[in-house]
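[recover] target loaded
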């Protein structure tokens, strides 16, 4: 049924050598070519070469996708709005992850606008879609900008109270070679705190300080520096799979994170209006998926930098991470991945 709708691959370019291919199937960034220190274009994201590989019956993946309605996890697959509890899909143990097993990463978006460096996609998510209330109209705008960035703008409106949390789920490997891991990547995160998780990956409710722990990336260090440390949070996550509480607090004029490959010299700055960022180090990649170029995706083949509301925010009511959307309001979110 899915493939009866038109799926297309769009190419965006800039004069500076940045090039992205994006499909309306899941709003996925399929490839992202960035010049390395020698001017050689390197594809810095994981994904597939054939559209069929993105279909859920072939691979359940989030590679490059526009995630919705709610990115990350919701405890027991439930939300309560104005006293009414809604049961959502439980596709991650008892939790709802990335909108459920039929999330937006598997939907075909409408194409509203196409240009040399700009693509606008939209989606209507009907009331009751995967259990979420309200008819939601969402829009994602991708732009390649003159400052060498992939700029992503999200908007959504609803006709009933609901929750919304959209992100991009690109898997980055700035080595430009997904047969190598990302443990050598230098990562900096402007965050003094993070949200610890319990055994089911749901936040405990604490906003813990990173100081003195392997979660401290306030100064640049290799991702692999502490990833195998004897630390309970890393044992639970099988590595890093945690949300950082960003010091930028929604100020998208300041970078909240910096990632760099010493192999290629490609560096990436992240800017966002979101209060949090999930860092996921490909812990569940296990060599069973073959991606672009026939490369087998092994554990730690990539790192995801998912700007977001905090995980399980609707059930926590963190004031700095309000995920509720009501009629008359417009959800807006902005994230920029700028390459240096």
């Amino acid at each position: 049924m899915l493939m009866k709708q038109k799926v297309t691959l769009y190419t965006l370019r800039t004069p500076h050598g940045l090039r992205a291919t994006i499909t309306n199937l899941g709003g996925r960034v399929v490839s992202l070519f960035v010049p390395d220190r020698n001017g050689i274009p390197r594809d810095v994201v994981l994904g597939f070469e054939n559209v069929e590989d993105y279909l859920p019956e072939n691979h359940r993946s989030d590679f490059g996708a526009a995630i919705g309605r709610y990115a990350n996890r919701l405890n027991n697959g439930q939300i309560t709005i104005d006293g009414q509890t809604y049961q959502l899909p439980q596709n991650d143990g008892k939790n709802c992850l990335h909108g459920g097993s039929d999330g937006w990463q598997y939907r075909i978006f409408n194409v509203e606008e196409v240009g040399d460096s700009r693509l606008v996609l939209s989606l209507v998510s009907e009331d009751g879609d995967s259990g979420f209330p309200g008819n939601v109209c969402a829009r994602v705008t991708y732009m390649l900008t003159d400052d060498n960035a992939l700029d992503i703008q999200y908007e959504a409106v609803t006709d009933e109270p609901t929750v919304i949390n959209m992100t991009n789920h690109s898997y980055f490997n700035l080595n430009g070679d997904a047969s190598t891991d990302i443990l050598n990547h230098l990562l900096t995160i402007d965050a003094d705190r993070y949200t610890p998780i319990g055994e089911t990956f749901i936040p405990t409710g604490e906003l813990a300080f990173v100081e003195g722990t392997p979660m401290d990336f306030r100064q640049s260090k290799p991702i692999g520096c502490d990833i195998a440390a004897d630390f309970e949070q890393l044992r639970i996550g099988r590595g890093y799979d945690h949300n950082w509480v960003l010091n930028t607090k929604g100020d998208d004029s300041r970078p909240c994170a910096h990632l760099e490959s010493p192999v290629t010299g490609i560096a990436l700055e992240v800017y966002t209006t979101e209060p949090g960022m999930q860092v996921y180090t490909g812990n569940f990649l296990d060599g069973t998926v073959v991606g672009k170029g026939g490369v087998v995706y092994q554990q730690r083949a990539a790192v995801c930098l998912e700007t977001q509301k905090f995980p399980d925010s609707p059930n926590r009511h963190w004031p700095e991470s309000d995920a509720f959307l009501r009629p008359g309001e417009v959800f807006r979110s902005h994230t920029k991945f700028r390459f240096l």
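[recover] notes: The chain has one domain: 2-339.
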